[in-house]
Amino acid sequence: MNQLNPVFIPGPTNLPESVRRVIDQPTIDHRSPAFASLLPQLFGDLKKIFATDAAKIFVFPGTGTGGWEATVANTLSRGDRVLACRHGVFSDKWIRLCQSFGLIVDIIDCDWSGPADPIRIEEILRADSGGQIKAVLATHNETATGVRTDLAAIRESINASGSEALFFVDGVSSIASMDFRMDEWGIDGAVTGSQKGLMLPAGLAIVALSEKAIKAGQSAGLPRFFFDCSQMDQTTTAGGFPYTPPMQLIAGLQHALDLLLTEGLDQVFSRHFKMAEGVRQAAASWGYQLCCSDLQFASDTVTTIMVPEGFNADRLVEYAYSRYGMSFGVGLGQLAGQAFRIGHLGMLTEAQALSGLAVIEMAMKDLGYPIVSGSGVAAAQDWYRSAFSLDSQGSAAIEEPVCEDVA
Length: 407
What we know:
This protein has helices at 17-23, 33-36, 39-50, 64-73, 89-100, 118-127, 151-161, 211-217, 229-237, 247-263, 265-286, 313-324, 350-366, 375-387; strands spanning 56-62, 81-86, 104-109, 133-139, 141-142, 147-148, 166-170, 189-193, 203-209, 302-306, 329-330, 339-343. The radius of gyration is 21 Å and the shape is globular. The strands form 3 sheets. Strands 1-9-8-7-4-2-3 form a 7-stranded mixed β-sheet, sandwiched between helices. Strands 10-12-11 form a 3-stranded antiparallel β-sheet, covered by helices on one side. A two-stranded antiparallel sheet has the order 5-6. By secondary structure, the protein is an alpha/beta fold. The two termini are 33 Å apart. The longest helix has 22 residues, at 265-286. 40% of the residues lie in helices and 14% in strands.
C-alpha cells in the first residue's frame, strides 16, 4: 500500500496529523500528579460524546471486543438469558462472546439487509413473563452490512413490553460519528473503540454503564479481573489506573475529543452524513445495490455495495490494493465475495472521498465491471458541491484545528 493514500476501510480510520503528533510524545509517570490531572477532563468530555450525565465511563486497554466483554462480565452471571438480534458479522460475534461466558442467548435472526427488529424484541420480551431475560443486546451500526439500527425504537419496545432487562449497545462504529443519545434512549451499557470515530489507533476500549447497570454489577457472578469496572472506577477516581495505562493513546484521546467538541457534535454527525451520501450517490450512478435495503437505516460510517452477478468483490478489493495502493473493505460473512465496503468515518474530506471513488472506479473498469468511467465521481462531486457550504476563500468549511506543541 502507498502510505500517502488514505484508507477506505471502516476502521482503523485515517489519523488526523495533529493526533499523530500528540501521540508522539515522551512517557510521563502514570502515578504522578501530572497524569491524575488529565483524567477529570477526559472523562467529562467522554460523557459528552456518549450524551450522558449519569453513566460512569471506563477506559480499558483493548478494542471494541474488549468493551463487549467488560460490559457483560461486569453485569451478568453464568446462566443468565440475554436477547439479541443477529443481522451481521459483528452482532453475531457479540452473541458468540456471550455464549462463551455461559450466558443463554435467545437469538432473533434478521435479514442482513436490515436492522435489528424492535417488533420481534417486544414480542419475545412480552412472552418472558417471569423476567428471565436480563439484557437486550443491539448493534447500533453493523459494520459488515452498512445498516444502522433505530435504538430509540428498541428502547420503546423494551418499555412497551414491561421488561426490566438491561439495554446494551455496540456503538463501536457509530459513537462519535453518528447521533448517539445514551441517556435519552435509556441505554444501560454502551461500547466503542478508539480506532473508529475517535480517530486514534486501535488500543482503547471505552465503556459507559448506567446506574442500573452498575447496580446489577453488585450481584454479577461472571469472572473479571483485567476488565473489572469496580477496580477501574476506584483507581481512576483516585487519579490513577489499576495497571499500566497506554499513556500516549490517552493523550491522543483527549486531543481527539478536543477536535470533535470544537467542531461540534451536530456538525460531526452532519459531516458524516454528507460524506456517506456522496458514496451512496456514486453507487447509485453505477447502478449497484447497497446491502442496506432501506436507506432510512443506511450507515453514515460505512457503505456496503453489492457487486453484479458473476463478479468477485474480494478480487476487486485485492486488485485496488495491489494495482493502486488503496485499501477498501471486503465483504464479511455471508457477503464474502458479493460485496465490498467503503469506510467513510473519522476526519475525511471531500477530496479524500473522491480519490477513493476514483480509484475503485479504475479498479472496476480494469476488471471489466459494467460502469461508465467517472460516473460515480461525478455523482459524488455534484452532491458535495451542493451539500457543503464554502467559506469566503472558496475552501471547505470543515477544517482540522491546529495542534499545539506537546511538552
